[in-house]
Amino acid sequence: MLTPALLGLGLLAGFMIGCVGVGGVILVPVMTLGCGIPIGTAAAAAMMGYIATGASGTLLFGRSGAVDRKLSLALCIGAAPGALVGAWAVQKANPIVVQMLIAALAAGAGLNSLSGGARVRARPFALGATCAGLLGAAVGLISALTGTGGPVILVPLLMWLGVPVLAAVGLAQTIQLPVAGLATAGAYLIGSLDTQIGAQLTVGLVAGSIAGARIAHSVTEKTLHTIAAVILVTTGTIVAIRLVSVNFS
């Protein structure tokens, strides 16, 4: 019974990823609030779905030469332990706190898109290996804990640090692969991974991202960002209102 809903959700999130690079943040709140799936299971399934989108994104940006390989390696090395810890922590964390964090990420990403993106520094910040590793660990932890995609967190931060937008998106795609892979492996070992849900999301995410990437070339960037922003802000607002009404009424 959940198959059409999960495929449709994957298509929508994948479409947004293909168009503007952000969209995975809607997966967990819709699965938990709309489909009644436990938050730990939803986050693990979302991470499984990101393996395919991370692999395709890494291949695409790697071929284009838009990725700083040294910086990417440092981010990925830091992200690996962060993702494993996040996969464990989501099973222990208070679901309300996790969902509020997801709501904040969704609304924040949408508002950032509406405002035209993060304000870029006049001079790029020299991000050394140690700083990159720590940043990667934080991204891996938060991504695995919330089931959101790495680009939602990493792209605005990198742009604020002065990294060009294409390079920032490329780095966010490369970090997605180890984060999603290790978080999925951790969830499998813990026993919280539902491979059927993950497989359905994967199909939708891949198909949606392909369609989104094609349509992105026929629609203005402003229109794409506006649509994505409205969806993200709406998702974050609905999650926050639902949590407040259920837990504080």
Automatic annotation (TrEMBL):
<feature type="transmembrane region" description="Helical">
    <location>
        <begin position="73"/>
        <end position="90"/>
    </location>
</feature>
<feature type="transmembrane region" description="Helical">
    <location>
        <begin position="7"/>
        <end position="31"/>
    </location>
</feature>
<keyword id="KW-0812">Transmembrane</keyword>
<comment type="similarity">
    <text>Belongs to the 4-toluene sulfonate uptake permease (TSUP) (TC 2.A.102) family.</text>
</comment>
<dbReference type="InterPro" id="IPR002781">
    <property type="entry name" value="TM_pro_TauE-like"/>
</dbReference>
<feature type="transmembrane region" description="Helical">
    <location>
        <begin position="96"/>
        <end position="114"/>
    </location>
</feature>
<feature type="transmembrane region" description="Helical">
    <location>
        <begin position="37"/>
        <end position="61"/>
    </location>
</feature>
<keyword id="KW-1133">Transmembrane helix</keyword>
<dbReference type="GO" id="GO:0005886">
    <property type="term" value="C:plasma membrane"/>
</dbReference>
<protein>
    <recommendedName>
        <fullName>Probable membrane transporter protein</fullName>
    </recommendedName>
</protein>
<dbReference type="InterPro" id="IPR051598">
    <property type="entry name" value="TSUP/Inactive_protease-like"/>
</dbReference>
<keyword id="KW-1003">Cell membrane</keyword>
<feature type="transmembrane region" description="Helical">
    <location>
        <begin position="157"/>
        <end position="190"/>
    </location>
</feature>
<feature type="transmembrane region" description="Helical">
    <location>
        <begin position="223"/>
        <end position="244"/>
    </location>
</feature>
<dbReference type="Pfam" id="PF01925">
    <property type="entry name" value="TauE"/>
</dbReference>
<feature type="transmembrane region" description="Helical">
    <location>
        <begin position="126"/>
        <end position="145"/>
    </location>
</feature>
<keyword id="KW-0472">Membrane</keyword>
